[in-house]
């Protein structure tokens, strides 16, 4: 047990050491030493995490590793401890492995960066550490520390190229949108402490049976757990970029491609899913909130897929696929299939990192061009990247036997087998999205790698990436192929109960995971049929008859513009929120702050100065004037006394 806890601490804190060393001493060490240090420490973290996973699969159970005393104030207590159970250990292993591959990939991708890159590698390690603190937390406040840490790191990395106004704007947008959601999350944490008496997971879960019938009065009387679960879910919506709070995620593509891979695969966006699964004992007792989760998740998956259909930017297309896949994960949470949600989170990490790093290889090959309509015919130039993108797309589309097939189909089967009508809505949206996902994935492949080169200069200069970039891509390709079949028995199969060992709760009397094998055969095949149909349609539209998309765009121009402009969410928010906020801010600034707050003392000062100037004029120095003034004063005084006798 001591060995496991030691390895667990190494896995969590090695990236922190890498961040501190590279960040504080990188300017003295130089880029090469900083890169080597961060990668070496990430290697230690990944190997340690894999070792802990082996120990945990040996039925260690839940174990808490104390780190330090933290907050002791009156009745509030929150210590810094690492929670070691299968839920946290499995995510730590995934995060460290993917982050290590991203670190290695970044050596080649950032090789031509003009400015020193030690800061970039230190930020990657900080990002990883913050995510590890989030998933290993033993209480909600410690989780919130990691929650805000990944927000800070994403701000630093999205805006890494700070000389680009678009990158700075994207970083600020990500930070601000997440702060909106975090307000609800903080209120939820506060309500948990006030009503359940603690922020520690064990204490919260132990107190749940005693508060099942509690209510909370807010615009009416509501079940307490519904209110708490909804607040936590809104917080999760911001981090995991669900509908209405998703607008920051596509803009985050302004950062370097390795950052996109880390955000979309292993950190940041997965935090919301983890939160809901960690709080599954409470969420399971909030059926209305779970229906809301299915509604938002299913709608988000469809929305993002429709927008991905028309995006010209290769990275934004993949970014919207992340939004869509996160919607699947929330559908699984809503129907109580938490294990399937974590399964898809894990397999998605491999194939989404593969797709982003593959896209980075394409961008590297064509000299930083990201517009797919300027590419074409690249498969002969970069065959390794081409094969990797095929593997990633097959996994994303859920084609057997690739990783996405096992996890995404498990979610859809769980939605179908659930007793909830809202769950069936999630199934319908998921199946439609499966078709759209395959369609835009092969649209990307056909536009980028097939057909006639649209820019001869870009095509002629295209070249395969260096080994430092291709090795991580190759390893992720292996994960995208085998992760599903290898992990399925443990995450959702016959060994799932022993594997999770109580780390994930089931809905009382409704463990949908146990019923997956009862799914009708035709229902189980619908997602695969939809994905294959999507590939066929993409082939017809972009290879057999490439004039079809342009004709559809012309004939359905309002719909095309609606999708191209991302359902006009940014424009709507600009009109409904941004402009009124700016107007109010300007009014408070000019009308209240400058005219009133600053104006009153400045006016008094001007009045005093003016009065003093007038008083000075009375001091003439003439004795006659002074005597005459005294005479007038005496006359006024006597007149007043006689008048009021």
Structure in words:
The chain has 645 residues and is mainly alpha-helical. The protein has a domain at 286-500 and 520-564. The chain contains 27 helices and 4 strands. It has helices at 2-29, 31-56, 86-109, 118-135, 140-158, 165-196, 201-207, 224-239, 248-251, 257-265, 269-278, 280-283, 287-308, 314-334, 338-365, 383-397, 403-417, 421-449, 456-461, 467-491, 496-500, 521-544, 548-555, 557-564, 569-597, 599-618, 623-643, and strands spanning 63-73, 76-84, 215-217, 221-223. It has a two-stranded antiparallel sheet with strand order 1-2. Strands 3-4 form a two-stranded antiparallel sheet. α5 packs antiparallel against α6 (165-196) and α13 runs antiparallel to α14 (314-334). The longest helix has 32 residues, at 165-196. The radius of gyration is 30 Å and the shape is globular. It holds the Pfam family Proton_antipo_N. It comes from Komagataeibacter oboediens. It is found in: Endomembrane system; Membrane.
In short:
The chain has 645 residues and is mainly alpha-helical. The protein has helices at 2-29, 31-56, 86-109, 118-135, 140-158, 165-196, 201-207, 224-239, 248-251, 257-265, 269-278, 280-283, 287-308, 314-334, 338-365, 383-397, 403-417, 421-449, 456-461, 467-491, 496-500, 521-544, 548-555, 557-564, 569-597, 599-618, 623-643; strands spanning 63-73, 76-84, 215-217, 221-223. The strands form two sheets. It has a two-stranded antiparallel sheet. The protein has a two-stranded antiparallel sheet with strand order 3-4.
């Amino acid at each position: 047990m001591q060995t496991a806890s030691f390895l667990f601490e190494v896995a969590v804190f090695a990236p922190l050491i890498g961040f501190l060393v590279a960040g504080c001493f990188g300017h003295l060490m130089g880029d090469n030493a900083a890169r080597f240090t961060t990668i070496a420490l990430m290697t230690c973290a990944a190997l340690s995490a894999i070792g802990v996973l082996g120990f945990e699969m040996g039925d260690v159970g839940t174990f808490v590793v104390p780190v330090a005393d933290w907050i002791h104030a009156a009745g509030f207590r929150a210590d810094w401890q690492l929670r070691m159970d299968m839920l946290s250990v499995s995510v730590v292993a995934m995060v460290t492995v993917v982050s290590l591959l991203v670190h290695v990939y970044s050596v080649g991708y950032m090789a031509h960066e003009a400015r020193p890159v030690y800061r970039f590698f230190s930020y990657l390690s900080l990002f990883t550490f913050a995510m590890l603190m989030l998933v290993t937390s033993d209480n909600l406040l410690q989780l919130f520390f990691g929650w805000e840490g990944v927000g800070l790191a994403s701000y630093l990395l999205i805006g890494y190229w700070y000389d680009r106004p678009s990158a700075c704007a994207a970083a600020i947008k990500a930070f601000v949108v997440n702060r909106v959601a975090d307000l609800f999350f903080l209120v939820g944490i506060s309500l948990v402490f006030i009503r359940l008496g603690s922020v520690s997971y064990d204490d919260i879960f132990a107190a749940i049976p005693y508060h099942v019938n509690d209510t909370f009065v807010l615009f009416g009387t509501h079940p307490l757990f519904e209110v708490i679960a909804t607040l936590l879910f809104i917080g999760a919506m911001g981090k995991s970029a669900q509908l209405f709070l998703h607008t920051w995620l596509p803009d985050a593509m302004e950062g370097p491609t390795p950052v996109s891979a880390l955000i979309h695969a292993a950190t940041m966006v997965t935090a919301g899913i983890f939160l809901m699964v960690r709080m599954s004992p409470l969420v399971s007792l909030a059926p209305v909130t779970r229906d809301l989760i299915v509604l938002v998740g299913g709608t988000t998956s469809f929305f993002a897929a429709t927008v991905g259909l028309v995006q010209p930017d290769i990275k934004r297309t993949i970014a919207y696929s992340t939004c869509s896949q996160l919607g699947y994960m929330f559908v699984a949470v809503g129907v109580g299939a938490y294990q399937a949600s974590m399964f898809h989170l894990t397999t998605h990490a491999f194939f989404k990192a593969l797709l982003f790093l593959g896209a980075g290889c394409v961008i590297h090959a064509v000299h930083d061009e990201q517009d797919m309509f300027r590419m074409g015919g690249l498969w002969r130039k970069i065959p390794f990247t081409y094969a990797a993108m095929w593997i990633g797309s097959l996994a994303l589309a859920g084609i057997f036997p690739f990783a996405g097939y096992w996890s995404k189909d498990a979610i859809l089967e769980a939605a179908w087998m659930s007793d909830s009508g809202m769950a069936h809505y999630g199934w319908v949206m998921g199946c439609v999205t499966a078709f759209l996902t395959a369609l835009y994935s092969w649209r990307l492949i056909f536009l980028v790698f097939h057909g006639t080169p649209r820019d001869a200069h870009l095509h002629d200069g295209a070249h395969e990436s260096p080994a430092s970039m291709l090795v991580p891509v190759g390893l992720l390709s292996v994960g995208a192929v085998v992760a599903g079949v290898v992990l399925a028995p443990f995450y959702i199969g016959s060994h799932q109960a022993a594997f999770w060992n109580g780390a994930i709760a089931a809905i009382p009397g409704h463990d949908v995971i146990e019923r997956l094998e009862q799914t009708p055969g035709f229902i189980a095949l619908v997602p695969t049929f939809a994905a294959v149909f999507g590939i066929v349609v993409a082939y017809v539209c972009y290879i057999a008859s490439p004039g079809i998309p342009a004709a559809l765009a012309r004939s359905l121009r309002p719909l095309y513009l609606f999708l191209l402009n991302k359902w006009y969410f940014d424009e709507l928010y600009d009109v409904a929120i941004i402009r009124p906020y700016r107007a109010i801010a300007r009014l408070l600034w000019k009308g209240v702050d400058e005219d009133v707050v600053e104006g009153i003392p400045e006016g008094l000062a001007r009045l005093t100065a003016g009065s003093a100037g007038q008083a000075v004029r009375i001091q003439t120095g003439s004795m006659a004037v002074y005597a005459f003034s005294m005479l007038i004063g005496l006359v006024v005084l006597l007149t007043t006394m006689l008048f009021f006798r």
